[in-house]
Amino acid sequence: MIWSGLFAIIAVLLLLRQPVILVLAVATAYIHVFIAEGELQFLAQDIWFAIDREVLLSIPMFMLAGAVMTRGTIARRLIRVMSALTAPIPGGLGVAAILSCAAFAAISGSSIVTMLAIGSIMYPALIQSGYPKSFALGATMAGGTLGIIIPPSIPMILYGVMTEVSITDLFAAGLGPGILMTLLMATYSAIVCRNITAGKWDGAEVAASLRDGILALLMPVILLGGIYSGYFTPTESAAVALIYSIVVEIVFYRELKFDDYYKVFEDTTKLLGTLLMLLAIAGSLNTILDYEGVPKAMAAYITETVQSPVMFMLAVNILLVIVGCIMDIGSAILILAPLLLPIAVANGYDPIHFGIIMIVNLEIGYLTPPVGLNLWVAMVAFKVDFASVIRAAVPFILLMVVGLMVIIALPELTFLFVKGR
Length: 421
What we know:
By secondary structure, the protein is mainly α. Helix content is 79%, strand content 0%. Helix 3 (40-51) crosses helix 13 (258-292).
């Protein structure tokens, strides 16, 4: 009866189209008071313990660094380098769009930031160069999703925080799948756009673009090299990214004005306020559910019900695709990762491998209606209708599903760059 009341409250709030954070807060308070028979003051304590973690400092710093690079010229300089290098390839500008997204993903940690930073320049350039509008839109949206699979990645940080899995190992594990997804998208772009006239190799332009973009190109090398060499932690890498981006924009490029920095901090603060509240409430919910033994009970039930790891993974993929259609990736990871991981481990899946599988699944959710975030942002940013963005996303969704199956079938790909595995 008590659980029925909880589900009824959640259903009513969802029908009233209330924000996820409100639904989660009400559900957490209900569980604390009526199911765990505790007091609301315990909820406040759990919220504090959930956010009192040093690693969470990396999230606002990565968000700020990404916002600085988006408003500055780092993205434009990366695009110039990739365009010069791929000019002789038929459909080279399409390939350059994907490679630019991959390069920017290695310094931003966010799908939306990557899509807007590269897409605001590349989308009109593709259209003007004769590429189909549907392809230009799809490549921009799909390329943006690389921002959460190629490290550093904010969703990986959230997964690591909620499951106590090494964030450094998660970053290393994302490299192989990230390269795979990039190659799939770039190859598809070259094949589909093979009839578009290629440019000529211009050594002078390549050299000029490299000189112009060398500081931007060094950033992912410094970040990833520092993390994997053990020179600094993921949290420290976020500080390095933020300081590096600000210094480069102020000292060398000098194109950002004071008003731009004010807007960067304002926008980041708004996003961060929502994310940290969600993280705090989800952490509190995770604590009380763990205390009540809910994850263990679910793991035991599903292990008894599902007869094989293959069937379990099929069920998880279906669940995550559905969740990705109706919930943003941050909320999904915060709510589902602590519940699903014990079940995955019971079925023989490594926590790091499962984390990558989960993130790639939810990455696909960025392109799936009705709540695929990249779809809505692209619709507004590029001034196209929703039906058009859905049609443009379909081929890339299929590509990403192929990539997901490879990642599931070949765990070695995930552990390719993880030390000691």
